[in-house]
Amino acid sequence: MDTTRIYQKFKEHIDEQRLLINAPMKEHTSFKLGGAAKLLVLPETKEELVHAISVCKEHQLKWYIMGKGSNLIVKEKGYDGVIIKIGDYYNKISVRDELITAQAGALMSSVAAKAMRHALSGAEFASGIPGTVGGAVVMNAGAYGGEMSQITYKVKALDSFVTEVEISGGELNFGYRDSIFHHHPYVILEVYLKLVKGNQKVIRDKMKELSHRRNSKQPLDYPSAGSIFKRPHGNYAGKLIEEAGLKGLSIGGARVSPLHAGFIINEGSATSQDVLDLIAIIQSTVHDKFDILLETEVKIIGDE
Ligand SMILES: Cc1cc2nc3c(=O)[nH]c(=O)nc-3n(C[C@H](O)[C@H](O)[C@H](O)COP(=O)(O)OP(=O)(O)OC[C@H]3O[C@@H](n4cnc5c(N)ncnc54)[C@H](O)[C@@H]3O)c2cc1C
User: Measured from the CB, is residue 53 less than 6 Å from ligand 1?
Assistant: First the structure.
């Protein structure tokens, strides 16, 4: 990619402080590992986001949209293209009656906190999910019996022609950690969540209780991407990994969490390759023992 020439194009509409050349993705993902993006764009407004995508399309650049990078591994060799990170600046939230409107980069924790302040119930389950509302809709993120499909009223998105479209919740084809966005190249701009009126204290207590449960069950002191694998039908990835004797196994700086075997943690010096090697060992061991193929929930991008 001819970064210098293309860089000028991005600069026409985006402040250069939010255009990072050769950006180490370990500084932009929750796992704190991975190689560099040739160019990392941090849009602040819809216009900047549209401009960034339009430049990528016009110049046929390889590009990828990310939220906060809490479900993302970038390979060691990095990404020879443009990564557009929505989760740092594009994050306004507003409330009207029982409807919350959030720009795609708003954090789920901020959305849930705002809902609580307005005594709106329904988003408590998501208060500890460390990504953006856009990423949460894409992943149909869920916890403790709640998931985004239950509260997503509609989204505004850009289609493959960079035209704005509205998609209702019912058309988003939500499934387990799945949505229309895994199958069609939309970019989510705004998410509308429909909540219900509740009691502020009850909502706050629920969020506290869930946070307590999360803190005691998950290795939150270490960088990770949460659950590495999807839950296999009728079973739990963590349980299978533990029963296969892999809890605590490490490669380089990556380890199967001794607290929760469904998590791989970065003990400080892990590379993406360490994590990918650990994933491969887990998949083959669990397959050999139980004839179950664990599918990754985490998204893996980057060059070979
Ligand atoms: C400690 C920890 C705990 C976690 N707990 C949970 C949990 O309880 N439940 C759960 O479901 N997940 C959990 N996760 C995983 C993760 O937080 C969720 O998947 C989250 O919704 C991802 O959001 P993100 O903004 O970080 O998305 P990213 O990781 O940046 O991206 C995820 C996917 O969404 C796409 N994407 C992001 N934004 C957009 C957009 N605006 N338009 C189009 N595509 C987009 C990306 O291309 C990618 O395919 C956890 C992760 C960690 C680190």
Answer: no
Q: State the span(s) of the chain assigned CATH 3.30.465.10.
A: 93-215
Asked about 177 being catalytic, the answer comes back as: yes
Q: Which fold has domain 93-215?
A: 3.30.465
Q: Is 34 in the pocket of ligand 1 (CB under 6 A)?
A: no
User: What is the residue-level pLDDT of the chain in tens, covering all 304 positions?
Assistant: 777 788 999 999 999 999 999 999 999 999 999 999 999 999 999 999 999 999 999 999 999 999 999 999 999 999 999 999 999 999 999 999 999 999 999 999 999 999 999 999 999 999 999 999 999 999 999 999 999 999 999 999 999 999 999 999 999 999 999 999 999 999 999 999 999 999 999 999 999 999 999 999 999 999 999 999 999 999 999 999 999 999 999 999 999 999 999 999 999 999 999 999 999 999 999 999 999 999 999 999 999 8
For the whole model, what pTM was predicted? 0.97
Report the side by side order of strands in the sheet with 254-256. Answer: 224-227, 263-266, 254-256, 250-251
Domain 219-301 = CATH 3.90.78.10: yes
Segments of the chain assigned to CATH 3.90.78.10:
219-301
How far away, in angstroms, is 124 Cα from ligand 1 center? 17
- Four-residue CA torsion sign, 159, 162, 163, 169: positive
Selecting among 147, 177, 190, 272, the annotated active-site residue is 177
| CA of residue 242 to ligand 1 center, whole Å | 25
- Catalytic annotation present for 149: no
Give CA torsion, residues 236, 241, 243, 248, to 10 deg.
Answer: -130
